[in-house]
């Protein structure tokens, strides 16, 4: 099980501070976090498909997570929590930056959504377990990936579903996601540190050590005329679903 002592080896304080500075602009689709607004529908489409496949819910249903609990780790200002709530889940969002949590709470309240937001390290919080655990674009920001994933796994209820997304560590991602993206302002300078990216094979190996099997893995790619979309091309970003090995 994870414990409070792992908090000093997961989310780096400077990473939390960096994203806290962006909190006030998080919900502006044309602001500094515009890239997240553009990728969010793609990630949510994957999550919805994974939910239906894992829980056997009807793909045409509007509340497939009704009666289920969901946790988003590294929730930022709630871009994933709010759609999960609308899909019927009782949602908890956790973020290391209290400014993000405050922004998330205010936005959810304004939208009439009942979402529990908590500031802190997931390892140190007594919040129980959840049917669905998501952590999107977070693992690349942690100091000890093995410890972080252990803490994430500890939050998953028996029979639960885990969804993770992160940039791949490739030559292309170094040029495009770090160099070019920051140079043109697509993401704020300092968002990404390429050496901290993790390949799909490395992530799957860490998950296997924790007793998980990956059930689906897709790339998130971009091309002219189509924009960001789920793809077999994992050279820049990828997203996966996993469950405890049966």
Automatic annotation (TrEMBL):
Source domain of life: Bacteria
Residues that bind S-adenosyl-L-methionine: 43, 74, 95, 136
A GO term for molecular function: polyprenyldihydroxybenzoate methyltransferase activity
Reactions listed under catalytic activity: a 3-(all-trans-polyprenyl)benzene-1,2-diol + S-adenosyl-L-methionine = a 2-methoxy-6-(all-trans-polyprenyl)phenol + S-adenosyl-L-homocysteine + H(+); a 3-demethylubiquinol + S-adenosyl-L-methionine = a ubiquinol + S-adenosyl-L-homocysteine + H(+)
Coiled coil, from the record: none
Pfam families (UniProt xref): Methyltransf_23
Enzyme Commission identifier(s): 2.1.1.222, 2.1.1.64
InterPro entries, per the entry: SAM-dependent_MTases_sf, UbiG_MeTrfase
Keywords tagged on the record: Methyltransferase, S-adenosyl-L-methionine, Transferase, Ubiquinone, Ubiquinone biosynthesis
GO terms under biological process: methylation
Annotated signal peptide: none
Pathway named in the protein's UniProt entry: Cofactor biosynthesis; ubiquinone biosynthesis
Family: Belongs to the methyltransferase superfamily. UbiG/COQ3 family.
PANTHER family cross-referenced by the UniProt entry: METHYLTRANSFERASE (PTHR43464), UBIQUINONE BIOSYNTHESIS O-METHYLTRANSFERASE, MITOCHONDRIAL (PTHR43464:SF19)
Its biological purpose: O-methyltransferase that catalyzes the 2 O-methylation steps in the ubiquinone biosynthetic pathway.
Protein name per its UniProtKB record: Ubiquinone biosynthesis O-methyltransferase
Gene: ubiG
